[in-house]
Design goal:
The structure holds two protein chains of two kinds.
Chain A (H helix, E strand, L loop, with lengths): L3 H5 L7 H40 L3 E2 L5 E2 L6 H4 L4 H33 L4 H12 L6 H12 L4 H9 L9 H26 L2 H9 L4 H12 L1 H16 L3 H7 L6 H9 L5 H25 L5
Antiparallel strand pairs in A: 1-2
Helix pairs in contact in A: 2-14, 4-8, 4-11, 6-12, 8-11, 8-12, 9-10, 13-14
Chain B lengths: L1 H6 L9 H13 L2 E12 L3 E12 L3 E5 L6 H9 L6 E6 L2 E2 L10 E4 L11 H11 L4 H14 L15 H13 L5 E5 L7 H18 L2 E6 L2 H7 L2 E6 L2 E6 L1 H6 L4 H6 L4 E9 L2 E4 L4 E3 L1 E2 L6 E6 L5 E3 L10 E12 L3 E7 L6 E6 L12 E6 L4 E5 L1
Helix pairs in contact in B: 4-5, 4-6, 5-6
Chain lengths: 300, 385
Amino acid sequence: MTDLKDRGAPVEQVNPELEKKANRRESWRGFFHAAPAYVYLTFFFILPLIIVFVFSFASRSRTGKPLLADWNLDSWIKLLDPLVRTIAVRSLWMAILNTVICLIIGYPFAYWIATRAKRSTRTFLLVLVLIPFWSNFLVRTYAWRTLLGNDGLVTQFGEATGLWGRMLFTEPAVFIGLFYGYLPFVVLPLYAAIERIDWSLVEAARDLYASGSQAFRRVTLPLSKPGIIAGSVLVFIPSLGAYVTPDILGGAKTTLLGNYIVTQFGGARNWPFGASLSSAILIVMLLATLFYFRSDGKTL
Amino acid sequence: MLLAAQGRTLTSVGKTPSQYAGDWDEVTEHQSAVSFRGVTKRFGDEVVAVDGVDIDIRDGEFFSLLGPSGCGKTTSLRMIAGLEFPTEGSVQIFGEEMGVRPPNKRPVNTVFQSYALFPHMNVEDNIAFGLRMQGVDKSEVLTRVGDSIDLVRLTGLGKRKPNKLSGGQQQRVALARALVNRPKVLLLDEPLGALDLKLRQTMQLELKDIQSEVGITFVYVTHDQEEALTMSDRIAVMSEGKLAQVGTSEEIYETPTNVFVAGFVGEMCFVPAVIVGDNQVRLEGGSVVAARADGAAGDDVVLTVRPESLHLYAQMGEAPDGRNAVPGTIHRRVFFGDSIMYEVDVGAAAMMDVRVENIPSARRWNEGDSVIVDFHPDAAAALAE
């Protein structure tokens, strides 16, 4: 009787030297394929970031012109200003709230799409989610300005029913804009995660005495975690740095971090402070994201 | 025509009806573990997955649902589990009508085909899942989980995640996860399908051992007839949503009641024939042989006989008396190692396959040799087409 192991053994012996060479060649080829992206990212992402970081240590002339001399930490110290904290807390609150609400509204929707039996139905629903991206974000935000404005449909409806008044240039308006803008960013990764779930696991949970809601909580939800993480990162980060939406829908009244930074480079003519703010947010985000992924023990 | 034959269930075919009639009475007296009454399951308007099935599965038996893919065996199992509900008919578990009762309210557990182990939980948590859902208290969960890990010989692997286990180990976790709940009936959906041959054979015996150890009714779905024959107390062969035959392994193999079962379980020679008298049929090609046959003279039938029941002789006189002898010519010889298969042309549309054990004393035949195919009348049955 022949052993099973023997039958499965490879017939030819691979020369380890040759194999190493082939691997090396393969990895070089991979590098060449990725090279255009590396070059692009280096010139238009990493270099500008370094420039921003360098400017945060620069000084200003009397008229506010940034001077690449007299390097100092003034603009970093200015980050401790109470005003910065107020704006940061407000932005953080907005971003967290937006993320949570996007998840709460987006999850059932993504679940519903992912559980449609026919592939064509799922594709159609996903296309509906993507349709807004076919028009410019700025244009869509201006559309909200009309809707929320004095004669806007939303305002008219709110006044007619007595539920709300004019919302434009208030915090709720900014919030509506953010939610509208970022909802698709949670729906898509959630859909991808939920669609991948092996439904026999849910059946197994039901078979093992879990009620429908217990099966959801113990099996479906934990297994959609990659989608929840990806979705919340995709919403939280841009919400925190949002500029267009608070600017257009919030007017000058609701200052968020994004607008505050723009002000530093514009009206306030304080480039170093704008640069230190940007760098600080970037560093905090980077650390937070790393921590978020690590805590789950996986990289996305 | 084939369908009609398969449609006949326990009460209609062969010498078995009286035998089964007795069994049925017995079963209804001692409550059966699972019973189907006229169960039909349709998916949409077109697909009839299960078509008017009556089954009684006895308490404590190892019962297999055997059939080709799409025969309705898995759907039947899922209806016991509560993962599907019958379109018509009733499913009862220990006399209790299940209706549309959800799976978590049924005293059964399932070992799924792909195991369906929770990937985000370790072995212990997987096994403890059912107990925790039932609200069993912590210390008892701990002991029972520990015991079942030992029962399926996975001691020491409790903290591993399922993807760190081999196929066989995953299979055992799936088994332990179901058994730990002490279900009244354990449902197994092709649990060994994903394992390699050697492991499958070991697991077959192990499953059988575990079953007799825990004494729970096992309902086992498989398309592998050998697996069903080895493990089962009784087998229900299904075809196109209907029961083709229910019986012990021996009954299914030795006295199939219809052409489908005869062909699906094991190897079988089929020779077209006509009934000519009391247990006498004339084969296509002219020979008249004795075989179990029911039906009237003139009925078209198929003579069925196992290749291993056939013997070859050179001349008429050599074969023992009282047996059937059909003259023919060796058409082809196929060498299998442990045996040699001769295809013998007996003048019928189909060849008779004769399997001869490859032992030194066995005579070798060559293609073109004239031979006599010999078999005992009890080994052959004439079945309606």
